[in-house]
## 1
Amino acid sequence: MSETIFHKIKRREIPSEIVYEDDHVFAFRDIAPQAPVHVLFVPKQDFATLNDVPFDSPEIVGRLATAAAAYAKKEGFAERGYRIVMNCNEDAGQTVFQIHLHVLAGAPLGHFGA
Ligand code: AMP
């Protein structure tokens, strides 16, 4: 897949607030937050969209979700709640073609859809 802005964030080549990192995942604040907390969790292994993740590698996406839950507990919003979202391709509005999980929290969130 092609280079994205998230690769530059991972390499600390452009400014970003990285809030979480482990061997498999890194996470940083979204530049255009849609909620008081809006963090993106990205695997260190590259996939452009969810469609590109091999069926027998569910840990790629699973690690994003468990890292998000660990972060929610650490930051104290796990009990109040949060939303995780992954956009895939055009109809979902994906704009950065490197898979990432949005974590939204910090206020009651409206429901969404078409
Ligand atoms: P998506 O539309 O699901 O592909 O989400 C891409 C997200 O990346 C959007 O919410 C953008 O606001 C966010 N974004 C784009 N550029 C940056 C950046 N330099 N730093 C942090 N977040 C970014």
Note: The beta strands are 18-21, 25-29, 37-43, 82-85, 101-105.
## 2
Amino acid sequence: MNSRIIVALDFESSKQASNFLDNLDPEECRIKIGKELFTASGPDFVRSVIARGFDVFLDLKYHDIPNTVAKAAVVAADLGVWMLNVHASGGMAMMSKTRDALERFGADRPKLIAVTVLTSMAGNDLAQIGIQASPLDQVVRLATLTENAGLDGVVCSAAETSTLRKSIGSDFCLVTPGIRRLEDAAGDQKRVVGPGEAIANGSDYLVVGRPITKAASPNLALAEFNSAVAGAVKPLV
Ligand code: C5P
């Protein structure tokens, strides 16, 4: 499996999500399961998606004391997920303890990435919680902390990718949502970037939801996203 496209499975129920997956080929994309679907459908549903052959990114953004997050991550890894994430603002101890706890999975260890600053937060939102840095400076700070904690990468907006690529290692994985082709509606995404441009700016994986899940032909849309990033020269990390 070497697709760079992670389809966001943003459905309300496992029934809707399963119907969608019935027509999708696990050789053509990976799948992201977030808080809504996980809360509705639970770990058995995650196992069922993995059993269909999909690589699953479990997007639960853990943020708690180090022991709790490390243990939750081990349970997620036991499910067989390919990637999972934590909030970098949980700090160095939380991230490195979680990273260490996943060592026991050896070569089957899921990729562990972090969320830096939620893209829903602007400068004044950060100031309200006592952070005086600009959002971009805070993203770079937290991405550097994530890299130093030994994690595999961060989720970042397309607007941050090229800045981040300059300050972190080339094998550090950047996972980018907010991706649209010219013909796609932006929806509630404020700044969108095309798939080829996102890869050129240094993204490794693109999270795409509605342009594929709501397409008249999801497979056709997925094929277009796959071919738009096929020219990427950087090997998959
Ligand atoms: O439908 P759309 O392509 O906008 O879906 C993008 C997915 O990426 C959604 O699951 C959304 O929650 C997620 N996401 C995002 N922006 C972020 C982080 C995650 O759109 N900054």
Note: Strands lie at 5-8, 30-33, 56-62, 83-87, 111-115, 153-155, 173-176, 205-208.
